């Protein structure tokens, strides 16, 4: 039997470049005239772990800062960061995760900026909302004070090293949600920084969103006009998800599961009534979960209004006023099924395109642009217009498609 | 239809490949176990470079006669994998492994003396 070979690594690694890897995406961008309108990616990633040595210097707490810096000397052994089992590159089949290190980048610009702008231009993206990768699991860290310190260090590093240096990169900063007071301080400290368009809660965690401890943070965000978002991920150690035995399973369920819990608590406890102007976004759960949950909650609501007396309307009506990122967008063979989902969430104004690049299941803008049931204006709203209005971005395209 | 030069046969070792741009066509030409295979380099999923990823054997579940599960292994069936998202295609047929009704466009490969051509 032939064993798996690594031809790309062996033969082509020195030719790898993001622009080459995404050459077909650039052809799509040119063919669809993306240069004529704004495209905003509300969920993309960098690998902040590649900058740990620099990033950890930004941690205020001297004890945690020292421990974190020391931990970078022992890669693969003890670390200050928690992690998750998860072979997201599908056993090496997603080659860019390994090969991206061969990309040649100029020394005078931060590598994350160079790498990000390369794929943005290749796809036709004008602005990208950048999120971390390993830190998506930081809400599961056993030490709350470490989550707080890492979040503070990461946010300050991101603002000073990345966002202040590149106007096309924006972010919803990490909220250390396991410490409600620290979350509040984070919004206070960073809310007005350049490129900060909101704040993000990593969804895998076990503190309910309706806890009174978060009320002052929600009020502050509402007052500042900054959205709060919930970025999905999984926890394979969760008691229910631990029953799954493959990554496909824990990913399919886990990326919906935590957002379904948080959404249910958010709506049933009347937070949309208490914070009517607070904008809420749900990231990287796809779309079918919302379609399903709207119907589930509406069905029970009419029989159990006493469980949720703060609500003045059906749960789906509140959910229809929230924002949803597209990726990973489910694409049923019958487009009418997807069309019904779009209708359910009021996609023309509430749906915002996201790539999740460079992660394994990224989407291109064509997942929206090629849909047969959307008119040109709806496509442009979802690909950029809705996000530009939400984040207050200049709608003039600035990308340079190769 | 025209014949487009791919490579000298002697230049392609086992498991080697070339990406050939032939007018509007972009074609991946593989040489594996003594045979040439040529397919469209546009993945049926999102248009990724389908022929530019790993060559890797098919993964199979080992199910015993009593229908119990006994782990996984690789079979002899060779796949190539689109590097964008991991869509797998069978090398001998161009069939998309996740849904065999889907097939990459196949191109004919001809050898004239030492020269290998793809027809497109």
Task: Report what the structure shows.
The complex is a heterodimer of chains A (402) and B (120). Helices cover 42% and strands 9% of the residues of chain A. With 402 residues, chain A is of the alpha/beta class. Chain A has an 8-stranded parallel beta sheet with strand order 1-2-3-4-5-6-7-8. In chain A, α8 (144-163) runs parallel beside α9 and α9 runs parallel beside α10. Chain A starts with 6 loop residues before the first helix and ends in an 11-residue tail after the last helix. The relative contact order of chain A is 0.14. Chain B has a single domain (3-119), classed as Rieske Iron-sulfur Protein, CATH 2.102.10.10. In chain B, 0% of the residues lie in helices and 52% in strands. Chain B has no helices and 9 strands. Chain B has strands spanning 3-8, 16-22, 25-32, 35-40, 55-63, 69-81, 88-90, 108-112, 115-119.
Brief rundown of the structure:
The complex is a heterodimer of chains A (402) and B (120). By secondary structure, chain A is an alpha/beta fold. Chain A is 42% helix and 9% strand.
Distance between the termini of chain A: 42 Å
**The CATH superfamily title of chain A:** Metal-dependent hydrolases
CATH topology of chain B: Rieske Iron-sulfur Protein
As laid out across the biggest beta sheet of chain B, the strand order is 1-9-8
Using DSSP, what is the number of strands of chain B?
A: 9
CATH class of chain B: Mainly Beta
Shape of chain A: globular
Query: Overall mean pLDDT score of chain A?
Result: 94
Portion in strands of chain B = over 45%
SSE order of chain B, as H and E? EEEEEEEEE
Sequence of secondary-structure elements of chain A? HHHEHHHHEHEHEHEHHEHHEHHEHH
Report the helical percentage of chain B.
under 10%
The parts of chain A where pLDDT drops under 50 for at least 5 residues are 1-11
